């Protein structure tokens, strides 16, 4: 297949490399002009995926039209807050028959839209008939190193899910289909908020009990929000739910958990983010998640405390005290 990949961060670069390795003809759109110029000769994304030698057949462009035109499958992997802008720029070049896949994890600020809703907003309802949403436990660096990984891909149309499954699967990358777009997307977006909280707990010096409690009660929170938004309960015990939540709340490679740890150790958010080139989606998703929970009338105490730590200068220790001292209730 001819595939365009929009976004050359660590995940977009890794997926482009994987797809080229499977035998597809892949063009990777690179936002940073200087990086786009370095990549063909260097074959290494020194900004976002240093140390990985990329597939020889990959091509690169700083021009979104070049990467989009001719693509039978367009893969969107920018940070979620700029996906609207990136997709809007690509749309005039997109063939009406092309498949569209989003691998970004987040909820847009203000609109509170999932990436599927952003696509629909930009291109109309028809786009969802040929779109799919990829999520699940998948650190880019481990996928690039061909460590066995399993993810979920959700689509309205089973045939589209099957085509995307076939296009992405390799010996080390196993793709499961699913038809719960909302559940798969929400699982991927909200686990980042809980991973921040798990990092805070680790940074404060708490142990395994606290982390297990955050994962379990975090999943309860994600599930409540998901069900209120029309997701299917079983999705949250799958790869895009529990799978990604456990990975991100426990894995040292998680940027979200790392930001949380630094907050727990007492650093300010501005200080942490000023030293980071990469995106920790949970920081902005916390804003959307809190508003979404309020709009849906859902109790989301971990999201609320994470919001207060990030945006209201609440001390991490006080947030834990407040979580523990809420009214006692049934599980
Ligand atoms: N890295 C992973 O392991 C991983 C795994 C699964 C999903 N994801 C998701 O993939 C998405 C992309 O994350 P990433 O880790 O590849 O990114 P990254 O943090 O490695 O890199 C940041 C990316 O943002 C791009 N960018 C910054 N400002 C931009 C702008 N104004 N317009 C367009 N692009 C801009 C940069 O070019 C770069 O590609 C996120 O939603 C993330 O949650 C990441
Ligand atoms: O590094 P994080 O925290 O953005 O997590 C990356 C992936 O979403 C893990 O599946």
Automatic annotation (TrEMBL):
<dbReference type="GO" id="GO:0046168">
    <property type="term" value="P:glycerol-3-phosphate catabolic process"/>
</dbReference>
<feature type="domain" description="Glycerol-3-phosphate dehydrogenase NAD-dependent N-terminal">
    <location>
        <begin position="2"/>
        <end position="159"/>
    </location>
</feature>
<feature type="binding site">
    <location>
        <position position="244"/>
    </location>
    <ligand>
        <name>sn-glycerol 3-phosphate</name>
    </ligand>
</feature>
<dbReference type="GO" id="GO:0046167">
    <property type="term" value="P:glycerol-3-phosphate biosynthetic process"/>
</dbReference>
<dbReference type="GO" id="GO:0008654">
    <property type="term" value="P:phospholipid biosynthetic process"/>
</dbReference>
<dbReference type="GO" id="GO:0141152">
    <property type="term" value="F:glycerol-3-phosphate dehydrogenase (NAD+) activity"/>
</dbReference>
<feature type="binding site">
    <location>
        <position position="140"/>
    </location>
    <ligand>
        <name>NAD(+)</name>
    </ligand>
</feature>
<keyword id="KW-0443">Lipid metabolism</keyword>
<feature type="binding site">
    <location>
        <position position="191"/>
    </location>
    <ligand>
        <name>sn-glycerol 3-phosphate</name>
    </ligand>
</feature>
<feature type="domain" description="Glycerol-3-phosphate dehydrogenase NAD-dependent C-terminal">
    <location>
        <begin position="180"/>
        <end position="320"/>
    </location>
</feature>
<feature type="binding site">
    <location>
        <position position="10"/>
    </location>
    <ligand>
        <name>NADPH</name>
    </ligand>
</feature>
<feature type="binding site">
    <location>
        <position position="105"/>
    </location>
    <ligand>
        <name>NADPH</name>
    </ligand>
</feature>
<feature type="binding site">
    <location>
        <position position="105"/>
    </location>
    <ligand>
        <name>substrate</name>
    </ligand>
</feature>
<dbReference type="GO" id="GO:0006650">
    <property type="term" value="P:glycerophospholipid metabolic process"/>
</dbReference>
<keyword id="KW-0594">Phospholipid biosynthesis</keyword>
<dbReference type="GO" id="GO:0141153">
    <property type="term" value="F:glycerol-3-phosphate dehydrogenase (NADP+) activity"/>
</dbReference>
<dbReference type="Pfam" id="PF01210">
    <property type="entry name" value="NAD_Gly3P_dh_N"/>
</dbReference>
<dbReference type="InterPro" id="IPR011128">
    <property type="entry name" value="G3P_DH_NAD-dep_N"/>
</dbReference>
<feature type="binding site">
    <location>
        <position position="254"/>
    </location>
    <ligand>
        <name>sn-glycerol 3-phosphate</name>
    </ligand>
</feature>
<keyword id="KW-0444">Lipid biosynthesis</keyword>
<dbReference type="Pfam" id="PF07479">
    <property type="entry name" value="NAD_Gly3P_dh_C"/>
</dbReference>
<dbReference type="GO" id="GO:0051287">
    <property type="term" value="F:NAD binding"/>
</dbReference>
<feature type="binding site">
    <location>
        <position position="140"/>
    </location>
    <ligand>
        <name>NADPH</name>
    </ligand>
</feature>
<feature type="binding site">
    <location>
        <position position="138"/>
    </location>
    <ligand>
        <name>sn-glycerol 3-phosphate</name>
    </ligand>
</feature>
<keyword id="KW-0520">NAD</keyword>
<feature type="binding site">
    <location>
        <position position="136"/>
    </location>
    <ligand>
        <name>sn-glycerol 3-phosphate</name>
    </ligand>
</feature>
<feature type="binding site">
    <location>
        <position position="255"/>
    </location>
    <ligand>
        <name>NADPH</name>
    </ligand>
</feature>
<dbReference type="InterPro" id="IPR036291">
    <property type="entry name" value="NAD(P)-bd_dom_sf"/>
</dbReference>
<feature type="binding site">
    <location>
        <position position="281"/>
    </location>
    <ligand>
        <name>NADPH</name>
    </ligand>
</feature>
<dbReference type="GO" id="GO:0005829">
    <property type="term" value="C:cytosol"/>
</dbReference>
<keyword id="KW-0963">Cytoplasm</keyword>
<feature type="binding site">
    <location>
        <position position="255"/>
    </location>
    <ligand>
        <name>NAD(+)</name>
    </ligand>
</feature>
<dbReference type="InterPro" id="IPR006109">
    <property type="entry name" value="G3P_DH_NAD-dep_C"/>
</dbReference>
<feature type="binding site">
    <location>
        <begin position="255"/>
        <end position="256"/>
    </location>
    <ligand>
        <name>substrate</name>
    </ligand>
</feature>
<dbReference type="InterPro" id="IPR006168">
    <property type="entry name" value="G3P_DH_NAD-dep"/>
</dbReference>
<dbReference type="InterPro" id="IPR013328">
    <property type="entry name" value="6PGD_dom2"/>
</dbReference>
<comment type="similarity">
    <text>Belongs to the NAD-dependent glycerol-3-phosphate dehydrogenase family.</text>
</comment>
<comment type="function">
    <text>Catalyzes the reduction of the glycolytic intermediate dihydroxyacetone phosphate (DHAP) to sn-glycerol 3-phosphate (G3P), the key precursor for phospholipid synthesis.</text>
</comment>
<keyword id="KW-1208">Phospholipid metabolism</keyword>
<feature type="binding site">
    <location>
        <position position="11"/>
    </location>
    <ligand>
        <name>NADPH</name>
    </ligand>
</feature>
<protein>
    <recommendedName>
        <fullName>Glycerol-3-phosphate dehydrogenase [NAD(P)+]</fullName>
        <ecNumber>1.1.1.94</ecNumber>
    </recommendedName>
</protein>
<feature type="binding site">
    <location>
        <position position="255"/>
    </location>
    <ligand>
        <name>sn-glycerol 3-phosphate</name>
    </ligand>
</feature>
């Amino acid at each position: 297949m001819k595939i365009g990949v929009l976004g050359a961060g660590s995940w977009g670069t890794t997926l482009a490399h994987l797809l080229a390795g499977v035998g597809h003809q892949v063009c990777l759109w690179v936002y940073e002009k200087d990086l786009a110029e370095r990549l063909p000769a260097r074959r290494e994304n020194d900004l976002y995926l240093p140390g990985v030698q990329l597939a020889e057949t990959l091509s690169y462009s700083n021009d979104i039209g070049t990467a989009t035109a001719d693509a039978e499958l367009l893969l969107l992997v920018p940070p979620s807050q700029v996906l609207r802008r990136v997709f809007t720029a690509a749309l005039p070049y997109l063939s009406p028959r092309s498949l569209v896949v989003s691998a970004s994890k987040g909820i847009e600020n203000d609109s509170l839209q999932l990436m599927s809703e952003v696509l629909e907003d930009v291109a109309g309802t028809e786009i969802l008939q040929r779109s799919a949403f990829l999520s699940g436990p998948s650190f880019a660096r481990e996928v690039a190193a061909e460590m066995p990984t399993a993810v979920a891909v959700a689509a309205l149309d089973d045939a589209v899910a099957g085509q995307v499954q076939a296009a992405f699967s390799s010996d080390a990358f196993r793709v499961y289909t699913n038809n719960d777009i909302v559940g798969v997307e929400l699982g991927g977006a909200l686990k980042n908020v809980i991973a921040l909280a798990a990092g805070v707990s680790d940074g404060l010096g708490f142990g395994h009990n606290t982390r297990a409690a955050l994962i379990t009660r975090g999943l309860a929170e994600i599930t409540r929000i998901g069900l209120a938004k029309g997701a299917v309960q079983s999705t949250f015990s799958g790869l895009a739910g529990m799978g990604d939540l456990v990975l991100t709340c426990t894995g040292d490679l998680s940027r979200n958990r790392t930001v949380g740890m630094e907050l727990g150790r007492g650093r300010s958010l501005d200080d942490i983010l000023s030293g980071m080139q990469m995106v920790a989606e949970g920081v902005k998703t916390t804003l959307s998640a809190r508003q979404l929970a309020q709009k849906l009338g859902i109790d989301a105490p971990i999201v609320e405390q994470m919001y207060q730590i990030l945006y209201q200068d609440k001390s991490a220790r006080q947030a834990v005290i407040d979580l523990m001292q809420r009214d006692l209730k049934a599980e």
